Amino acid sequence: MLQTAAGKEYMKDSNCIFCKIANGEIPSRTIYEDEKFRVILDLGPATKGHALILPKEHYANLFAMPDELAADAMKLAKKVASVQKEKLHADGLNLVQNNGAAAGQTVEHFHIHLIPRYENDGQTIGWKPEEPTSEELDEICRELTEN
Ligand code: AMP
Ligand code: ZN
User: What average pLDDT does the structure give for the chain?
Assistant: First the structure.
């Protein structure tokens, strides 16, 4: 259990590096902090200013996040993204949020990547589009919507 200045106790995982960073046990280049989140510079940035939003509570991924905290994380993403865009003169910005090893998640503590983009920055963040048939799309739509 960790005690915050406000006296609130919450869970953290003693083996989780992002718990340690988010709660200030391991130093980081922090660009924003409040009671619920710390935002740090990524040590292996895709571009200049690549930052990570870390909740101070430990949740492995989006599926484990309480709705309210997930909503707060997105609000914060908008705030930090606006600062990155203005101060670093970014031309665009990617929000990336990986869940599970299959999706590229390497640190199992929820985080949102904020990746400022610059014209001709040479990065590719994307996917190879597949070409499903109309029937395949209909079937997927059914799978996702049937009770
Ligand atoms: P993901 O692949 O979505 O789990 O992203 C993990 C990210 O965390 C990568 O972009 C790493 O560069 C970054 N990272 C890992 N360890 C640290 C650290 N100690 N400080 C800052 N960023 C880190
Ligand atoms: Zn953690």
Answer: 93
The tokens describing 56, both together, are 């101070």
Instruction: Tell me, using a 6 A CB cutoff, whether residue 27 lines ligand 1.
Output: no
Regarding predicted confidence, which is higher, 136 or 3?
136
- pTM for the predicted model, two decimal places: 0.92
- Ligand sitting nearest the alpha carbon of 58: 2
- Ligand 1 pocket, 42 CB below 6 A? yes
The ligand that comes nearest to the alpha carbon of residue 103 is 1
Task: For 29-66, give one letter per residue: b (16+ CB within 10 A) or e.
Answer: eebeeeebbbbbebeeebbebbbbbbbbbbbbbbeebe
CA 37 and chain centroid, separation: 11
